[in-house]
Amino acid sequence: MLMGEPEQEKGWTMFFDGASNTLGHGIGAVLISPKERCFPFTTRLGFNCTNNMVEYEACAIGIAMALEYQIKDLKVYGDSALVIHKLRGEWETRDAKLIPYYSYIKELVEHFEKITFHHTPQEENQMVDALATLSSMFEVNRKAIHSDMTLLCCVYAKKAKEILEEIHEGAFRAHASGLLMARKILRSGYYWAKIEADCCNHVKRCHKCRIYVDNIQVPLVPLNILSAPWPFDMWGIDVIGPTEPKTSNGHCFILVSTYYFTKWVEVASYPSVTRKVVIKFIKNNIICRYGIPSHIITNNRTNFNNKMMTELYE
């Protein structure tokens, strides 16, 4: 559990400690900023280990937490003489169980501009000792967890990046979207604070996703401006039919008029489309509703192009 968001300044201090008892194993670390703000971190280990392994775990988790917040100048304090002196290079690491811890911490140390290790008495390390002891006593309530739920493993930035690449491009090779990939990672048993944001950003940086995404690939062309002197100034009229079967009232033709600018449609059905029917349709469905148009475009059939239509236009 991490509380607060530290400032990005130099001259940070980190205290760490581990606790191992009959209830379990817990580790704790506290980052202290130059303004003396404290940022504690604690967790329970889910495996059996020795006291020295617990101390190494606590030290590693504290240094990794400092790297998460891009701290470059760090003083590390711990009450384990074995861990401190070995990290200083004063003592040799011979225990096969501790060599991986030593190597891992040395890899983390290389990312700092300045880092020093100091031994402190246990009396001056009480806050971290209390955190470690409390975390070792923490126990998951199995009765409160449904049998089909997955206990998620919280990971750091480096491990999260590896998981992102594996889920997106590795064995899965699905190149899923950001939110879908986040759900896949959760189902796989992993979690970190910014999982959805990191997944979405990873998809945005994926070259293949950018190439094959469903974007419009049509080249840009100039837009053609449609001129409309006034609303409903130009209409097009046409006939659909005859249709089969006829309607119950014997209609088999559909007279359609479309306004060119907005594509608004006026429709009416008739048993036959004569000249009088067309004149009546134009008067009732166009002129009486939208005013007199400047243009009416037809296919020049006899029922559209005749003396009655000419008189109507005039």
From TrEMBL:
GO terms for molecular function: nucleic acid binding; RNA-DNA hybrid ribonuclease activity. Coiled coil: none annotated. GO terms for biological process: DNA integration. Pfam families: Integrase_H2C2, RVT_3. SUPFAM superfamilies: Ribonuclease H-like. Signal peptide: none annotated. Residues 8-137 form the RNase H type-1 domain. Residues 225-314 form the Integrase catalytic domain. It comes from the Eukaryota. InterPro entries: Integrase_cat-core, Integrase_H2C2, RNaseH-like_sf, RNaseH_domain, RNaseH_sf. This is Gypsy retrotransposon integrase-like protein 1. The gene is GIN1.
